[in-house]
Amino acid sequence: METMKAIICAKYGPPEVLQIKQCKKPVPGKDEVLIKIYAASVTNSDIFIRSSNVPFLMMIPMRLMIGLTKPRQEIIGEVFSGEIESVGSGIHRFKAGDQVYGLTGFSLGAYADYKCMKEIDSKQGCLALKPENISFEEATSAAYGGLLAFQSMEKGNIKAGQKILIYGASGTSGTIAIQFARYLGAEVTGICGSSNIALVKSLGADKVLDYTRKDSIKMLEKYDFILDAVGKRKTSELKKACEKALTPNGKYFSIDDSALLLESDRLNRIRELIESEKIRPINDKCYPFEQIVEAHKYVELGHKKGNVAITVNKKP
Question: Domain range holding 163?
Fold first, then answer.
């Protein structure tokens, strides 16, 4: 039996519950590809699954979905990039040697050497060719942040010249949302903490507001579209004021307002914009596989800039 290394989450709890173990290497079915994973991402969803630390009213629905007493899928992780090692006889979109990136959906399993996936989009994941001009670690930022940002920004039907506000502009989805809005020709205002102002400006924001400063509320304008890129659990006086800073036909959208759509067509569009250098994914830190506990601790602090990646295997 061939084995692989994987990060196991055998019970809910703090980062220390994560353990590296040897597991059976998966074998692809005729409608699956076998991916050697080079990098994964530590997302807030991974934190929620590992810790089960969610509001009480969400506890029962979440446990029913991912596992009552422990995660139903012991190998967690939902964002990855890697290379296809082999393909089943029914695969048409990919071939061995293709470099890919994507999300694993409800199947999880990205914290491991290998993962089998179908080529058809479903709640079990989506898969596309990776942008050629970025690293595997950067591709995990593009996959997760890109899907969140593009899906959210498309709700605004953004036109050139419109004023767009992004709350949480320095996060995984916020950093890509800024660049996408600029690509569409919008005037962009980003909101972030004082330590991230330079980063947000470098990504193309026309104006940047500091959510820790009370006078930032007075600097709000009227916006055609406002994106809450941090989610509804995080709030501030400035964020509350943002909800009222809309033009008569303006729209306010939170990344929590709808489930993330796992669509390879959108991943392909993200790849095209990255390869044409219209967008660049941002990684804050990259941890080695063996430091998964430290990576989870860092993300749990809530102050990361962009994405946090894990190097699972190094490309030869």
Answer: 145-254
Tokens of 186: 């919008």
Q: Residues 81-111: pLDDT tens digits? A: 999 999 999 999 999 999 999 999 999 999 9
If asked whether residues 120 and 12 sit together in one domain, one would say yes
Measured CA to CA in angstroms, residue 254 lies from 26, 173, 267 at distances of: 37, 11, 20
Place of tokens 């996408």: 180
**Residue 208 pairs with which residues in a beta bridge?**
190
* pTM summary value: 0.93
| Domain contains 261 | no
Residue at 25: amino acid letter: K
Token duo for residue 95: 């071939």
For residues 52 and 67, the answer to whether their CB atoms sit within 8 Å is no
Q: Based on the fold, state whether residues 153 and 98 are members of the same structural domain.
A: no
The pLDDT-based confidence of 57 (bands split at 50, 70, 90) is low
How far, in Å, CA of 196 to CA of 276, rounded?
Answer: 26
Strands (E) in the chain, as ranges, are: 3-9, 18-24, 32-41, 79-87, 99-103, 114-118, 126-129, 163-167, 187-192, 207-210, 223-228, 246-254, 283-288, 307-311
CATH of the domain at 26: 3.90.180.10
Token readout for 149 is 């940002």
Please state at what angle helix 172-183 crosses helix 136-154, rounded to 10 degrees.
60
- Residue of 84, 121, 153 lying closest to 267 (CA atoms): 121
Query: What's 212's domain CATH number?
Result: 3.40.50.720
